[in-house]
């Protein structure tokens, strides 16, 4: 089977665990670098018999789950504003523990949630070999870095179904805004009142999920979400902003990232309470840089950060 003939489809399940039926005309996903982290992850038990010779044991597959990961471009909500972000992209953020609020003619806003979390069905057709994951829930991290366009890296955990043969359907790929490079023209990163000379930003949703299979239940349950941001930036002077004092005093600062200039293709990240927890230094092209890890703390709940597409 040809790995370059792969179609990925995703759709939110109306009831978590009840398979959705993705439509290749509306639910095709432009996944980048798709891989099966475990196409069939077994839970096994075994008996090792007292048989008078070596090697006497039986193994029993009790349950199976699946894990996969892939990348999606980070782009704005399209135009007219708030009405043109493709359904499969919305589905992925929702399956990764986010509420998606679409306001026509205005924006798409994602925020993390702690209850009423959704799940999705994922179909992967590899040249006529079909694998399905249901009850999919996952994690996402966003990466903005020098010399690249921004990426959203997703990982999914879901229930297993036996693969089948199915002809590759004709799919309609979604129309996306073109991702824009992370550079001075397109991007601004602010910590407190200081605009940073920032080389890299990684925002980790920190979603944790667990697969269960026992009498009365087979599901993927969310267990926690501890968001972090990891920044690499040029060390500012003490007068500009003392990052070491922030670490010493448990200082909490607002963190923001805005990316993109044109309406319909702008992305804004905001965290009201970012606390510095680790700090290291290194040299880059003769400049002293720091890598700083921030815990993104909720204030009223489900507000560790907001992602706004305009």
From TrEMBL:
InterPro entries, A to Z: Phage_tube_2
Source species, domain of life: Bacteria
Pfam families xrefs: Phage_tube_2
Record's protein name: Uncharacterized protein
Organism: Pseudacidovorax intermedius
């Amino acid at each position: 089977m040809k790995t370059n003939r792969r179609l990925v489809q995703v759709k939110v399940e109306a009831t978590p665990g009840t398979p959705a039926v993705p439509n290749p005309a509306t639910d095709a996903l432009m996944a980048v670098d798709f891989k099966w982290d475990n196409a069939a992850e077994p839970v096994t038990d075994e008996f090792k018999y007292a048989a008078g010779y070596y090697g006497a044991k039986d193994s029993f597959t009790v349950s199976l789950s699946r894990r996969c990961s892939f990348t999606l471009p980070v782009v704005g909500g399209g135009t007219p504003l708030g009405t043109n972000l493709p359904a499969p992209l919305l589905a992925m953020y929702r399956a990764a523990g986010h509420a998606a609020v679409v306001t026509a003619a205005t924006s798409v806003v994602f925020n993390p949630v702690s209850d009423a979390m959704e799940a999705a069905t994922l179909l992967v057709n590899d040249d006529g070999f079909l694998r399905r994951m249901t009850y999919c829930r996952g994690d996402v991290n966003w990466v903005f870095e020098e010399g690249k366009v921004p990426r959203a890296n997703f990982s999914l955990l879901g229930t297993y179904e036996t693969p089948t043969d199915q002809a590759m359907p004709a799919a309609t790929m979604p129309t996306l805004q073109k991702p824009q490079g992370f550079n001075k023209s397109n991007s601004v990163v602010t910590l407190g009142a200081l605009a940073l000379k920032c080389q890299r930003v990684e925002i980790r949703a920190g979603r944790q999920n667990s697969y269960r299979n026992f009498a009365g239940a087979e599901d993927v349950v969310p267990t926690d979400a501890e968001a972090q941001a990891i920044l690499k930036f040029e060390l500012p002077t003490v007068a500009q902003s003392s990052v070491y004092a922030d670490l010493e005093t448990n200082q909490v600062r607002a963190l923001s990232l805005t990316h993109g200039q044109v309406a319909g293709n702008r992305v804004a990240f905001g965290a009201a309470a970012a606390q510095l927890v680790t700090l290291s230094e290194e040299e880059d092209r003769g400049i002293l840089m720091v890598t700083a890890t921030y815990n993104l703390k909720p204030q009223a709940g489900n507000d560790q950060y907001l992602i706004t597409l305009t």
